[in-house]
Amino acid sequence: MARATLREVLAAGLKGVRMGHGLRQEDAAARIRAHGLTSWIRGTVAQAEVGARRLTFEEVLLLSSAYEVTPAALIAGADEDLVELAPRALVPVATLRALVAGRTVPRTIRENVSDQPPEGIGEAERHVARRLGTSPELVNEMALALWGRSLAEERERRLTDQPEGLSPRRLQALRGHVTRDLIAELVPELRRRTAGRRGRSETPRPARTKEGPA
Question: What is the domain extent for residue 56?
């Protein structure tokens, strides 16, 4: 049974619906702009389809209109697959589609207790992992090695140095700035580890010797 975040199932759903219409990303972007999302370009479509863009509810509605499908059709996955709506709340895809479609369903949301993700891995680690093209587990491992705490904990520690009374918008901007700083600090460590793995996987070639005349 697969498990994914809402952003991931929407990303897969958007790609599937676009390809089902036989549209290139450029054509899809033009179609989406005509339905009100005037800032969307090919790159925006690409970001949404790999889960690098967090979609608002308004965007989901307008994307459904652009592709002429219901919002429920944008939710990809098998009925029994689980979608993580919160760290301790898992919902089957079938239930999520029913809720989006406006149907009343029995309580099927269940706590994610026995199958918790590894300690220290949350949305911050998943976001940075997507930015770096690696796994959340490796991001967490590198954060513990560099700062002695998870990435989310280090980010919040640095934010505590900011003055109190900041507006939510300003605080969000600062959180993004701190996240970019943390990513910049992780990049050299990621390169070092990646280079180390490549070095171990390569088979040394015997040295070539220059032969003299017989």
Answer: 3-111
